[in-house]
């Protein structure tokens, strides 16, 4: 495969080395005492001293225990379960709800956003696992549960003794699942009977509890239920053959007469899909941070490679077209950091809307898709080799681009907000 760096500069194709191990193998700079190279405008200055210390503690863990595992785990499409214990020891899962070691108040979203970006910078799949558990599952119980239900489930989930999943998407409903939900809930005395199917449910194969959303046959409202992962009548089948986010364990779920006690129906707040909508507003913002962290990694790996890779007697980092690619990547990362940070600030201030989070997700994910493609282009043929780093981010970006709302759906959410006219079609 031709190296684009060679093709652009002209001249004869150089002779390939006989020892391919001599080719550059760039690595992320995960030095906990330094800010990320990709944070060119120092957005991390928005964090307090204690927040920076926690971020650096996370970075040390990721460098020591996560980074060495992810290529092999990605290739085998398996989740390294030992990471659960490591994340539990970091005491981060309860931060958004005031259930962690930094005090009783919920952590600022700009801080938890940086945590998501840092995890995604090492591996987007691991960040997805963490986000599903802490954002979608815990967030649903926090937003939709009673105080008794919060106390029953969230402390153990914050300690990561109980792992959660979130069952919303269905085989026939992704973007329009709220309006066209086929999974049903029928009241039967002091129990509910769930019937239906869910798809793409991350963490489900090993989750202890799954928040299942179903349509109440009597009221037509969509309600949330906390269902044990081993509930009778629920079948969980891992989705195989993925080409992106392979470490994430996604599953198809079949619900056939699953009986859930009424005490396990989320009954705080509205107790309906309105609660899920509030959760998705936050997790969509988190997705913008995950997309930003992914492109930070792609940029840093491409920069490292360009400094090491020599053609025509000098590093390709000195070639004009390589510098152009790097600068475009850095511009995308910097703009994404700015939008994700400001959206987090608006959410913290109670001023963030669905449209704010939708625009952040659409923009950051679109810029991520460009950035990882440019990184793969710069690395040339070596960019499709898993061990050279860029390939995993290039593949995973395709899933990140689509989940937490596709580009098209997020665009229409923002379009409705700015024009006052809905372009959604039913």
TrEMBL record:
Alphabetized UniProt keyword annotations: FAD, Flavoprotein, Oxidoreductase
A Pfam family found in this protein is Acyl-CoA_dh_N
**Where is the stretch described as Disordered?**
1-22
* Family label: Belongs to the acyl-CoA dehydrogenase family.
Name of the protein in question: Acyl-CoA dehydrogenase family protein
Q: InterPro entries, per this entry?
A: ACX4-like, Acyl-CoA_DH_CS, Acyl-CoA_Oxase/DH_mid-dom, Acyl-CoA_Oxase/DH_mid-dom_sf, AcylCo_DH-like_C, AcylCo_DH/oxidase_C, AcylCoA_DH/ox_N, AcylCoA_DH/ox_N_sf
Ranges for domain Acyl-CoA dehydrogenase/oxidase C-terminal = 278-418
Where does the Acyl-CoA dehydrogenase/oxidase N-terminal domain start and stop, copy by copy?
Answer: 52-161
- What species is given as this protein's source? Actinomycetospora lemnae
Domain (Acyl-CoA oxidase/dehydrogenase middle): residue spans on this chain: 165-256
Cofactor(s) needed, names only, are: FAD
